[in-house]
Amino acid sequence: VPFGFEDIAPHEKTERVGAVFRSVARRYDIMNDVMSFGQHRLWKDLFVGRVLPRAGESILDLAGGTGDIAFRMARSGAEVVVSDINPDMLAVGRERAARRGLDHLRWVEANAETLTPFADSAFDAVTIAFGIRNVTDIPAALRAIHRVLKFGGRFYCLEFSQISLPLVADIYRGYSRRVVPGAGALIARDRASYKYLVESIERFPDQDAFSAMIRDAGFGQVRAQPLLGGLVVIHSGWKS
Ligand code: SAM
Protein backbone atom coordinates (compact mmCIF):
# COMPACT_ATOMS: atom_id res chain seq x y z
CA VAL A 1 0.00 0.00 0.00
CA PRO A 2 1.48 3.39 -0.91
CA PHE A 3 1.48 5.93 1.91
CA GLY A 4 1.21 9.17 -0.07
CA PHE A 5 -1.08 10.67 2.53
CA GLU A 6 -1.25 14.13 0.93
CA ASP A 7 -2.97 12.74 -2.14
CA ILE A 8 -5.70 10.61 -0.61
CA ALA A 9 -9.26 11.29 0.47
CA PRO A 10 -9.86 11.83 4.21
CA HIS A 11 -11.84 8.61 4.68
CA GLU A 12 -8.96 6.75 3.05
CA LYS A 13 -6.46 8.13 5.57
CA THR A 14 -8.77 6.99 8.38
CA GLU A 15 -8.99 3.51 6.83
CA ARG A 16 -5.24 3.23 6.37
CA VAL A 17 -4.53 4.39 9.93
CA GLY A 18 -7.06 1.75 11.04
CA ALA A 19 -5.16 -0.89 9.07
CA VAL A 20 -1.83 0.23 10.56
CA PHE A 21 -2.98 -0.15 14.17
CA ARG A 22 -4.94 -3.34 13.47
CA SER A 23 -1.75 -4.77 12.07
CA VAL A 24 0.62 -3.65 14.85
CA ALA A 25 -1.69 -3.94 17.92
CA ARG A 26 -0.17 -7.18 19.26
CA ARG A 27 3.41 -5.94 18.82
CA TYR A 28 2.74 -2.30 19.62
CA ASP A 29 4.17 -2.23 23.15
CA ILE A 30 7.40 -4.06 22.38
CA MET A 31 7.94 -1.90 19.29
CA ASN A 32 7.66 1.27 21.38
CA ASP A 33 10.39 0.00 23.70
CA VAL A 34 12.66 -1.03 20.84
CA MET A 35 12.28 2.08 18.70
CA SER A 36 12.52 4.66 21.49
CA PHE A 37 15.14 2.67 23.45
CA GLY A 38 12.67 2.59 26.32
CA GLN A 39 12.43 6.42 26.34
CA HIS A 40 8.68 6.49 25.68
CA ARG A 41 8.17 5.31 29.30
CA LEU A 42 9.99 8.38 30.59
CA TRP A 43 8.08 10.75 28.27
CA LYS A 44 4.80 9.23 29.43
CA ASP A 45 5.82 9.57 33.11
CA LEU A 46 6.70 13.24 32.54
CA PHE A 47 3.44 13.79 30.68
CA VAL A 48 1.26 12.32 33.43
CA GLY A 49 3.29 14.36 35.94
CA ARG A 50 2.15 17.47 34.08
CA VAL A 51 -1.49 16.36 33.90
CA LEU A 52 -1.42 15.80 37.68
CA PRO A 53 -4.54 13.63 37.92
CA ARG A 54 -6.32 13.69 41.29
CA ALA A 55 -8.64 11.28 43.07
CA GLY A 56 -12.26 11.86 42.12
CA GLU A 57 -11.48 13.60 38.83
CA SER A 58 -12.99 12.28 35.65
CA ILE A 59 -10.37 12.01 32.89
CA LEU A 60 -10.65 10.92 29.26
CA ASP A 61 -7.56 9.46 27.60
CA LEU A 62 -8.05 9.68 23.84
CA ALA A 63 -6.31 7.46 21.29
CA GLY A 64 -5.50 5.58 24.48
CA GLY A 65 -4.51 2.43 22.59
CA THR A 66 -3.09 -0.23 24.89
CA GLY A 67 -3.51 1.90 28.02
CA ASP A 68 -0.04 3.27 28.87
CA ILE A 69 -1.29 6.75 29.82
CA ALA A 70 -4.48 5.52 31.49
CA PHE A 71 -2.59 3.05 33.72
CA ARG A 72 -0.30 5.82 34.94
CA MET A 73 -3.24 8.18 35.62
CA ALA A 74 -5.34 5.51 37.34
CA ARG A 75 -2.77 5.29 40.18
CA SER A 76 -4.01 8.70 41.40
CA GLY A 77 -7.53 7.41 42.06
CA ALA A 78 -8.96 9.46 39.17
CA GLU A 79 -11.79 7.87 37.18
CA VAL A 80 -10.19 7.19 33.82
CA VAL A 81 -11.97 6.45 30.55
CA VAL A 82 -9.77 5.04 27.78
CA SER A 83 -11.05 5.71 24.30
CA ASP A 84 -9.69 4.70 20.90
CA ILE A 85 -11.08 4.26 17.39
CA ASN A 86 -9.42 0.85 17.06
CA PRO A 87 -10.98 -2.19 18.79
CA ASP A 88 -7.78 -4.26 18.39
CA MET A 89 -5.70 -1.74 20.34
CA LEU A 90 -8.41 -1.55 23.03
CA ALA A 91 -8.54 -5.36 23.24
CA VAL A 92 -4.79 -5.51 23.97
CA GLY A 93 -5.26 -2.71 26.52
CA ARG A 94 -8.08 -4.54 28.31
CA GLU A 95 -5.95 -7.69 28.60
CA ARG A 96 -3.03 -5.68 30.01
CA ALA A 97 -5.36 -3.97 32.50
CA ALA A 98 -6.73 -7.34 33.64
CA ARG A 99 -3.18 -8.63 34.22
CA ARG A 100 -2.47 -5.58 36.38
CA GLY A 101 -5.71 -5.87 38.32
CA LEU A 102 -6.89 -2.49 37.00
CA ASP A 103 -10.58 -3.30 36.72
CA HIS A 104 -11.98 0.20 37.28
CA LEU A 105 -11.00 1.66 33.91
CA ARG A 106 -13.70 2.16 31.26
CA TRP A 107 -12.86 1.30 27.63
CA VAL A 108 -14.91 3.03 24.95
CA GLU A 109 -14.54 2.80 21.17
CA ALA A 110 -14.86 6.29 19.66
CA ASN A 111 -13.51 8.51 16.92
CA ALA A 112 -11.68 11.50 18.43
CA GLU A 113 -13.16 13.69 15.68
CA THR A 114 -16.70 13.37 17.06
CA LEU A 115 -16.52 11.76 20.53
CA THR A 116 -20.20 10.86 20.13
CA PRO A 117 -20.40 8.55 23.19
CA PHE A 118 -19.51 11.46 25.51
CA ALA A 119 -21.73 14.27 26.80
CA ASP A 120 -20.81 17.95 26.74
CA SER A 121 -18.76 19.22 29.72
CA ALA A 122 -18.22 15.69 31.08
CA PHE A 123 -14.49 15.64 31.95
CA ASP A 124 -12.04 17.50 34.20
CA ALA A 125 -9.20 16.67 31.82
CA VAL A 126 -8.65 15.14 28.40
CA THR A 127 -5.31 13.62 27.37
CA ILE A 128 -3.98 12.33 24.07
CA ALA A 129 -0.51 10.82 23.66
CA PHE A 130 1.05 10.07 20.29
CA GLY A 131 -2.47 10.05 18.89
CA ILE A 132 -3.38 13.42 17.40
CA ARG A 133 -1.08 13.07 14.37
CA ASN A 134 -3.01 9.95 13.34
CA VAL A 135 -6.36 11.78 13.33
CA THR A 136 -7.56 12.78 9.86
CA ASP A 137 -9.44 15.98 10.83
CA ILE A 138 -7.38 17.46 13.68
CA PRO A 139 -9.40 20.72 14.04
CA ALA A 140 -12.58 18.61 14.43
CA ALA A 141 -10.91 16.52 17.15
CA LEU A 142 -9.78 19.65 19.01
CA ARG A 143 -13.33 21.05 18.89
CA ALA A 144 -14.74 17.72 20.16
CA ILE A 145 -12.20 17.71 23.01
CA HIS A 146 -13.23 21.26 23.91
CA ARG A 147 -16.91 20.19 23.89
CA VAL A 148 -16.48 17.26 26.33
CA LEU A 149 -14.37 19.26 28.81
CA LYS A 150 -15.94 21.03 31.78
CA PHE A 151 -15.37 24.78 32.02
CA GLY A 152 -11.99 25.13 33.72
CA GLY A 153 -11.05 21.68 32.40
CA ARG A 154 -7.61 21.04 30.93
CA PHE A 155 -6.31 19.47 27.75
CA TYR A 156 -2.88 17.84 27.45
CA CYS A 157 -1.33 16.45 24.29
CA LEU A 158 1.97 14.54 24.02
CA GLU A 159 3.29 14.32 20.47
CA PHE A 160 6.44 14.11 18.39
CA SER A 161 7.41 17.48 16.98
CA GLN A 162 10.16 19.14 14.98
CA ILE A 163 13.61 19.16 16.61
CA SER A 164 14.97 22.71 16.80
CA LEU A 165 18.75 21.93 16.41
CA PRO A 166 19.37 21.26 12.67
CA LEU A 167 22.22 18.74 13.20
CA VAL A 168 20.25 16.71 15.75
CA ALA A 169 17.20 16.90 13.48
CA ASP A 170 19.28 15.45 10.60
CA ILE A 171 20.58 12.58 12.72
CA TYR A 172 17.09 11.80 13.99
CA ARG A 173 15.62 11.93 10.47
CA GLY A 174 18.30 9.54 9.24
CA TYR A 175 17.62 7.14 12.12
CA SER A 176 13.88 7.21 11.71
CA ARG A 177 13.87 6.84 7.91
CA ARG A 178 16.52 4.11 7.78
CA VAL A 179 16.07 2.16 11.00
CA VAL A 180 12.40 2.36 12.02
CA PRO A 181 10.79 0.72 8.92
CA GLY A 182 13.44 -2.04 9.09
CA ALA A 183 12.76 -2.65 12.78
CA GLY A 184 9.03 -2.72 11.96
CA ALA A 185 9.67 -5.36 9.30
CA LEU A 186 11.74 -7.48 11.68
CA ILE A 187 9.73 -7.27 14.87
CA ALA A 188 6.15 -6.48 13.82
CA ARG A 189 6.56 -8.02 10.34
CA ASP A 190 5.14 -4.81 8.92
CA ARG A 191 7.47 -2.37 7.15
CA ALA A 192 4.72 -0.27 5.53
CA SER A 193 3.00 0.58 8.83
CA TYR A 194 6.23 1.82 10.40
CA LYS A 195 7.06 3.79 7.26
CA TYR A 196 3.68 5.48 7.69
CA LEU A 197 4.47 6.27 11.35
CA VAL A 198 7.75 7.96 10.38
CA GLU A 199 6.03 9.99 7.64
CA SER A 200 3.21 11.03 9.94
CA ILE A 201 5.76 12.42 12.43
CA GLU A 202 7.59 14.37 9.71
CA ARG A 203 4.32 15.87 8.44
CA PHE A 204 2.91 16.93 11.79
CA PRO A 205 2.79 20.75 12.29
CA ASP A 206 5.52 22.38 14.39
CA GLN A 207 4.87 23.66 17.94
CA ASP A 208 3.71 27.12 16.93
CA ALA A 209 1.36 25.91 14.21
CA PHE A 210 -0.16 23.25 16.46
CA SER A 211 -0.53 25.76 19.34
CA ALA A 212 -2.46 28.02 16.95
CA MET A 213 -4.78 25.12 16.06
CA ILE A 214 -5.47 24.53 19.78
CA ARG A 215 -6.28 28.23 20.24
CA ASP A 216 -8.57 28.17 17.18
CA ALA A 217 -10.60 25.38 18.85
CA GLY A 218 -11.39 27.78 21.71
CA PHE A 219 -8.72 26.95 24.29
CA GLY A 220 -7.00 29.58 26.46
CA GLN A 221 -3.61 29.62 28.20
CA VAL A 222 -2.15 27.45 25.44
CA ARG A 223 1.41 26.32 26.21
CA ALA A 224 4.01 24.12 24.54
CA GLN A 225 6.70 22.41 26.63
CA PRO A 226 9.41 20.80 24.50
CA LEU A 227 11.24 17.74 25.84
CA LEU A 228 14.60 16.61 24.41
CA GLY A 229 15.11 19.70 22.23
CA GLY A 230 11.66 19.40 20.71
CA LEU A 231 11.65 15.73 19.69
CA VAL A 232 8.58 15.42 21.89
CA VAL A 233 6.32 18.29 22.99
CA ILE A 234 3.63 18.57 25.66
CA HIS A 235 0.91 20.97 24.48
CA SER A 236 -1.70 22.13 26.94
CA GLY A 237 -4.72 24.42 27.04
CA TRP A 238 -7.68 25.26 29.25
CA LYS A 239 -11.37 25.54 28.52
CA SER A 240 -12.49 28.84 30.00
N1 SAM B 1 -1.77 6.65 23.53
C1 SAM B 1 -1.16 5.35 23.30
C2 SAM B 1 0.29 5.39 23.67
O1 SAM B 1 0.81 6.48 23.92
O2 SAM B 1 0.94 4.34 23.72
C3 SAM B 1 -1.37 4.88 21.87
C4 SAM B 1 -0.77 5.73 20.78
S1 SAM B 1 -0.81 4.98 19.18
C5 SAM B 1 0.69 5.59 18.45
C6 SAM B 1 -2.03 5.93 18.30
C7 SAM B 1 -3.46 5.51 18.57
O3 SAM B 1 -4.33 6.47 17.94
C8 SAM B 1 -3.86 4.16 18.01
O4 SAM B 1 -4.31 3.33 19.05
C9 SAM B 1 -4.98 4.48 17.02
O5 SAM B 1 -5.98 3.50 16.93
C10 SAM B 1 -5.50 5.78 17.59
N2 SAM B 1 -6.30 6.60 16.65
C11 SAM B 1 -5.99 6.90 15.37
N3 SAM B 1 -6.95 7.68 14.83
C12 SAM B 1 -7.88 7.89 15.81
C13 SAM B 1 -9.12 8.62 15.86
N4 SAM B 1 -9.58 9.28 14.81
N5 SAM B 1 -9.81 8.60 17.01
C14 SAM B 1 -9.34 7.93 18.10
N6 SAM B 1 -8.19 7.22 18.10
C15 SAM B 1 -7.46 7.21 16.97
UniProtKB/TrEMBL annotation:
S-adenosyl-L-methionine binds at residues 66, 84, 111-112. Its EC number is 2.1.1.163, 2.1.1.201. It catalyses: a 2-demethylmenaquinol + S-adenosyl-L-methionine = a menaquinol + S-adenosyl-L-homocysteine + H(+); a 2-methoxy-6-(all-trans-polyprenyl)benzene-1,4-diol + S-adenosyl-L-methionine = a 5-methoxy-2-methyl-3-(all-trans-polyprenyl)benzene-1,4-diol + S-adenosyl-L-homocysteine + H(+). GO terms for biological process: aerobic respiration; menaquinone biosynthetic process; methylation. Pathway: Cofactor biosynthesis; ubiquinone biosynthesis; Quinol/quinone metabolism; menaquinone biosynthesis; menaquinol from 1,4-dihydroxy-2-naphthoate: step 2/2. It holds the Pfam family Ubie_methyltran. The keyword rRNA processing does not apply. One of its GO terms (molecular function) is 2-methoxy-6-polyprenyl-1,4-benzoquinol methyltransferase activity. Keywords: Menaquinone biosynthesis, Methyltransferase, S-adenosyl-L-methionine, Transferase, Ubiquinone biosynthesis. Methyltransferase required for the conversion of demethylmenaquinol (DMKH2) to menaquinol (MKH2) and the conversion of 2-polyprenyl-6-methoxy-1,4-benzoquinol (DDMQH2) to 2-polyprenyl-3-methyl-6-methoxy-1,4-benzoquinol (DMQH2). PANTHER family: 2-METHOXY-6-POLYPRENYL-1,4-BENZOQUINOL METHYLASE, MITOCHONDRIAL (PTHR43591:SF24), METHYLTRANSFERASE (PTHR43591). Belongs to the class I-like SAM-binding methyltransferase superfamily. MenG/UbiE family. HAMAP family: MenG_UbiE_methyltr (MF_01813). This is Ubiquinone/menaquinone biosynthesis C-methyltransferase UbiE. It comes from Hankyongella ginsenosidimutans. The gene is ubiE.
